[in-house]
Amino acid sequence: MADLLGAAEALWSQLEQRLPGFEAEVLPQVDSTSTRLVEQTRRGICTPALLVALEQTAGRGRQGRSWLAKPGEALTFSLRLPLPAEMPLAQLSGLSPALGVAAAEALGPAVQVKWPNDLCLIRPGTGGVQLGKLGGMLIETAAAADGSPEGTRGVIVGLGINLSGEAPAVLATQGAQAGAPAPLPWASLAQAGARLTPALALRQVVPALVDAWLLFRGEGLQPFLPRYAARDALAGHPVRSWNAAAAQAEDGVAQGLDLQGRLLVHTARGLLALASGEVSVRPAIPPA
Fold first, then answer.
1. What is the DSSP string of 75-87?
2. d(C-alpha 83, C-alpha 102), whole Å
3. Residue 269 lies in a domain
4. Which of 28, 41, 54, 159 has the smallest count of CB within 10 Å of its CB?
5. C-beta of residue 54 within 8 angstroms of C-beta of residue 1
6. pLDDT in tens, 36-93
7. pTM of the model
8. 125 Rama sector, left if φ>0, alpha if ψ -120 to 50, beta otherwise
9. Structural domain for 181, as ranges
């Protein structure tokens, strides 16, 4: 806990001039760091903020999934970034891959990105096609409720990263919906030989996310596409997309991203551009 407090203080000193009004807080336990920052934003508090938790009791992932991690074996935090009044929400469609590749680069050469929001490690001996899930990112927007200053809105970036330890036992009992791609197996940075404490990982990742946000805010996804291609865990590999609403799967070969952050997949129907809110994607070859 003391190490995390020191890291948060150092980040405040480092980032306050770049993000005026920036605040950093560390809590021993919280339901969800993202939930807390969303609630604050709805009350009209929209200053840049970092909220770190040693333990989350109700951590949230994409599509309502739970985020499970043991205290001290993972880094869990959320970052609130005020949205400029002139930025349309549609422009945020490419933010997840932009921030995802920035986080991957900050964590080391073994870390890759899997569209739309996962950080992964390639499992040894699998020819680069079987992935282990190292972490996940959840991006949400929130606006102040009525009676708060007009235009008060922010984007909340939640990130969880497995650093060490073993997979929570409950993960072994979580299966996929019939026909859907199987969930990725659990992975940690320690499996790639990286020995990072939560405090060290925090000091590496947060400045990279801030740099990426400031670049994205000005130039969009374009400058990130070559960086993403260098870390893309899916490009050139068979993938299976799953539309939960229609309970339908479709196979194809991943072909990178377009400027809106959509995944390009060559299928029997031609080249499709998949939006992250519509489908989930996994490597078509099931994990061993």
1. EEEEEEEEPPTT-
2. 19
3. no
4. 28
5. yes
6. 999 999 999 999 999 999 988 876 655 455 556 677 899 999 999 999 888 888 899 9
7. 0.90
8. left
9. 2-234
